[in-house]
Amino acid sequence: MVVNEKAAPSRHVRLRDTMRRNALLNTAWRIGVFTVGATVALGGLVMMITPGPGMLGIIIGLAILATEFAWARRALNHARAAAERAKEKAFDPKRRRRNAVLGVTGGLLAGAAILGYLAVYDFVLPWRIQDVSFWN
Predict the structure, then answer these.
(1) Which pLDDT tens digit goes with each residue over 58-71?
(2) Helices 23-49 and 11-21, interaxial angle, to 10°?
(3) CA pair distance 31, 29, nearest whole angstrom
(4) pTM above 0.85, yes or no
(5) Could you read off the pLDDT of 4-20 as tens digits, one per residue?
(6) What is the DSSP letter of 67?
C-alpha cells in the first residue's frame, strides 16, 4: 500500500482549473462571483438599517468575493480580526459588569418614565372603563 500517493483533485477543482485556463470563461466566472458577492454584501448593508442580520450578510458577501479577489480576502481578514477584538472586549469582566449595571439602570429608568407618563395622562385600564358604548 502506497501512502504518499496524491489523491485525484475533486471535480470542482478540475472545473475551476479548466475555467482559469480559458480567458473568456475565467472572466465570466469572476463577473458572476463579483455579482453574487456584491449583491449579498449590499443586502447586508441594507439590513444594517432595516431589520435583518446585516453583519452576517456583509461577511458572507465578503467571503464569496474572497474566493476570487485578493482585496476581498484582505477585507475579510480585517473583519475577522475586528470581530476577534470585539469578542475579547465583550468578555472583559469589568466591561460586562458595567454593561449589566447600565442595562438594569436604563430598564428601571425607562419603566419609571412609562409609569410616570401613564400617571400624568390618566391611563385607564380597559376593565375599568365606565362608558362601554365606545367599544360597541
Answers:
(1) 889 999 999 889 99
(2) 110
(3) 5
(4) no
(5) 567 787 888 888 888 88
(6) T
